């Protein structure tokens, strides 16, 4: 409709004897901008059609884009609406999923594997640390499949022995809260069992000359 209006307007001006070359030259940059906009527009639409056909993304999937995690709420031809963990809405152009890496946390199943890392002081009972980490994860609401909880002794660091406890959650959107609850339990159990969490220390020698 708007295209027809524009054409009629141009025809009326031309019929009135107005030189249209001036307007066409002045609007060349505008037409170039419209061309680029339409190119991106059609890229989004084609990408949306491909996403719907190959079912690479579904409503309810938890995805990670540009370091942000969110749940897919709506997939349209041009854009996809995602709600992040802090309840913010991201409107993502569909072509972005075709040209950049997309992490789909729920592509294989509905559960997500998460981890909590902690360092303990040298000389600590590593077997006790392993048991305390497992118990902290088991006792936390939101952690599922307790038999799959795993503790890895990851490294001998400069100031600590580094461990990580791995566990599954049913909803990756709630992972930060679950991880926070596990850290509270770890801190409490470490205090009770006299397991120290070290902090970096440096010895400074002052030499008087």
Order of adjacent strands in the largest pleated sheet: 4-3-2-1-5
Counting helices, strands and paired strands, the structural category is alpha+beta
Low-confidence stretches: none
| Number of continuous helical runs | 6
- Radius of gyration using CA atoms only: 29 Å
Spell the H/E element sequence.
HHHEEEEHEEHEEEH
Strand content: 15-25%
Please, what is the oligomeric state?
single chain
The best one-word shape is elongated
Structural commentary:
The chain has 209 residues and is of the alpha+beta class. 40% of the residues lie in helices and 25% in strands. It contains 6 helices and 9 strands. The strands form 2 sheets. A 5-stranded antiparallel sheet has the order 4-3-2-1-5. Strands 6, 7, 8 and 9 form a 4-stranded antiparallel sheet that branches. A hairpin with a 2-residue loop joins strand 1 and strand 2. Helix 5 packs across helix 6. The N and C termini lie far apart (89 Å). The mean pLDDT is 86.
């Amino acid at each position: 409709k708007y295209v027809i209006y524009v054409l009629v307007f141009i025809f009326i001006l031309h019929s009135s004897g107005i030189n249209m070359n001036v307007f066409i030259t002045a609007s060349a940059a505008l037409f170039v901008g419209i061309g680029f906009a339409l190119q991106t527009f059609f890229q989004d639409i084609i990408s949306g059609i491909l996403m719907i056909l190959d079912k690479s993304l579904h409503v309810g999937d938890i995805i990670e884009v540009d370091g942000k995690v969110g749940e897919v709420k709506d997939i349209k031809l041009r854009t996809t609406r995602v709600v992040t963990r802090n309840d913010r809405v991201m409107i993502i152009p569909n072509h972005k999923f075709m040209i950049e890496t997309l992490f789909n946390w729920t592509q294989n199943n509905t559960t997500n594997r998460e981890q909590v890392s902690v360092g303990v002081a040298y000389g600590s009972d590593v077997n006790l640390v392993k048991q305390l980490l497992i118990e902290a994860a088991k006792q936390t609401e939101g952690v599922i499949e307790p038999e799959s909880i795993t503790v890895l002794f990851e490294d001998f660091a400069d100031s600590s022995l580094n461990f990580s406890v791995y566990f599954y959650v049913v909803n990756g959107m709630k992972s930060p809260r679950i991880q926070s609850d596990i850290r509270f339990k770890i801190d409490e159990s470490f205090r009770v069992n006299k397991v120290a969490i070290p902090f970096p220390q440096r010895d400074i020698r002052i030499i008087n000359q």
